[in-house]
Design a protein that fits this description.
The chain is mostly helical and about 120 residues long. About 45% of the residues lie in helices and about 5% in strands. It is globular, with a radius of gyration of 13 Å. The N and C termini lie far apart (about 30 Å).
Length: about 120
């Protein structure tokens, strides 16, 4: 519980610094350019890929809430595993999402899968 709160609060700060410019204050995204982070289905289906997406970015087409997006997302290679885990806790438990805790160990495991 304490860990969750710490991750969430730190994740919010990291989100504001690294993600909010494109994905919006409330995770609403930006038109057809940047997808929203309010689609619980996309986030839960792709939960184990989120760390890779945040760290390495994303190219190609993705569909979120039946809308296609093709704008390249640049990676945040400067972020440590703990930062990525905290961002994931924040985005998957904000904007209408309630997906619970995700820790640094899980981020490390998920990141190994995308190298």
């Amino acid at each position: 519980e304490l860990n969750y709160q710490r991750y969430y609060v730190n994740g919010k700060g990291l989100y504001e610094k690294n993600c909010q410019n494109c994905h919006g204050t409330n995770g609403e995204g930006l038109g057809k350019l940047y997808p929203p982070l309010t689609d619980t289905v996309f986030l839960s289906k792709n939960r184990s890929s989120l760390a890779c997406i945040i760290k390495n970015g994303l190219t190609g087409k993705i569909t979120v809430n039946n809308v296609s997006y093709e704008t390249e997302m640049t990676g945040n290679t400067n972020l440590a595993d703990i930062d990525i885990a905290q961002i994931i806790v924040y985005i998957t438990n904000s904007f209408g999402n309630r997906q619970g805790f995700y820790d640094q160990k899980q981020a490390r495991v998920d990141l190994k899968g995308c190298e």
